Amino acid sequence: MKRREFIAKGIVSSLAFTIVPRVVLGGNGFLAPSDRINLGFIGVGKQSYTLMNGLNRCKEIASLAACDVDSRKLAAFIAATAKKQTELSKAQTDIRSYRHYRELLERKDIDAVVIATPDHWHAQIAVDAAKAGKDIYCEKPLALTIAEGRAMVDATRKYKRVFQTGSMQRSSYNFRQAAELVLNGYIGKIKEINVSVGEPVKQCDLPSMPAPDYLDWDMWVGP
Which of 129, 149, 199, 222 is deepest in the core (most CB within 10 A)? Predict the structure, then answer.
């Protein structure tokens, strides 16, 4: 075989190998690294468990990191996540912990973040996550002000990220049906809407106390 023919045939053979179906390479459970979505959780209160359990049902999801200002909650969440991923026979069970969310955002292997912090942190973390090249799922309420919401939208578009916010009552059947009834005129012409938002706000009257050693109080207060 001439040298030129050998090289040409070698190239064709190598190209053929690259398009072999992945199931041949790794069995039915094989998932290419490019198909996996590596998640980081920022804020790990009770809502984060609902999100983690739901997201982990997707075979493409792997939770790699978590961050919180409360070290006790952080340790409990990491243990629960590792247990869930072990139960689901996922290869990734080593979840790193962080006290500051910017340290988590510095990781190049994190594709997306779940923001489930208290409301006053949503906007800043979302903007920083978009700048860091992460896609974002952010819990409701999305922001405290219209200006914060605009900043989140602008950052998402500027850095070409995917952003989703969770707003359960906008997707549940009963709420969608009610909206459809109103929009289609079934209850007549709307002339007045009454909204109740609970009792008037009162000044915090709780006694002062020292910050516990497991909580970074200044970081919790944040903006």
Answer: 129
Q: Is residue 43 part of a domain?
A: yes
Q: Is 138 helix (H, G, I), strand (E, B) or coil?
A: strand
**pLDDT, tens digit, 9 for 90 and up, residues 59-98:** 899 999 999 999 999 999 999 999 999 888 887 778 999 9
DSSP helix/strand/coil, 5:
helix
- pTM for this structure? 0.76
Q: 10 Å Cβ neighbour count for 167? A: 13
C-alpha R_g of the chain:
24
Angle at CA 23, nearest 5°, toward 22 and 26?
Answer: 85
Write b or e for each residue in 89-115: b if 16 or more Cβ atoms lie within 10 A of its Cβ, otherwise e.
Answer: ebebeebebbeebeebbebeebbbbbb
Amino acid at 148: E
CATH number of the CATH domain containing 119? 3.40.50.720
Over the stretch 133-160, which tens digit does the pLDDT of each residue have? 999 999 999 999 999 999 999 999 999 9
In the chain, how many domains are there? 1
Please give the residue range of the domain that contains residue 76: 37-186
Which residue is it, tokens 């961050």? 67
Under 8 Å between Cβ of 132 and 105: yes
